[in-house]
Design goal:
Blueprint (H helix, E strand, L loop, with lengths): L4 H13 L4 H13 L6 H11 L2 H22 L7 H4 L12
Helix pairs in contact: 1-3, 1-4
């Protein structure tokens, strides 16, 4: 199943963009939210996203993308908007169009 594939990559890239110790703090926070280890961000995020109900996944992606964008802006990284992470539902449809 390819659900969340691109989202997992984008979120993992946002994590990688953070400088230490902020990257470590973001990973620790995500592990708390996910209630599982985040040793390999891309595959672990993908596995987590695939386990979520589509509505919960969409809300999680929106929330986590906002947090990581803010972290990138303030603590390293590009701070550029990754709107594609939270602008689609599991069918690829913008919530604004529903």
């Amino acid at each position: 199943m390819m659900t969340g594939f691109s989202e997992a990559w984008i979120l993992a890239d946002q994590l990688e963009d953070l400088r230490e110790p902020y990257r470590h703090n973001a990973i620790a926070w995500l592990e708390t939210c996910m209630q599982r280890s985040l040793r390999t961000p891309r595959s672990d995020l993908l596995s987590f996203l695939e386990d979520l109900h589509p509505l919960i996944r969409r809300n999680f992606l929106h929330y986590i993308a906002c947090v990581l964008e803010d972290a990138g802006r303030y603590f390293g990284g590009s701070g550029e908007c990754h709107a594609e992470v939270h602008a689609r539902d599991d069918r690829g449809v913008s919530p604004d169009l529903l």
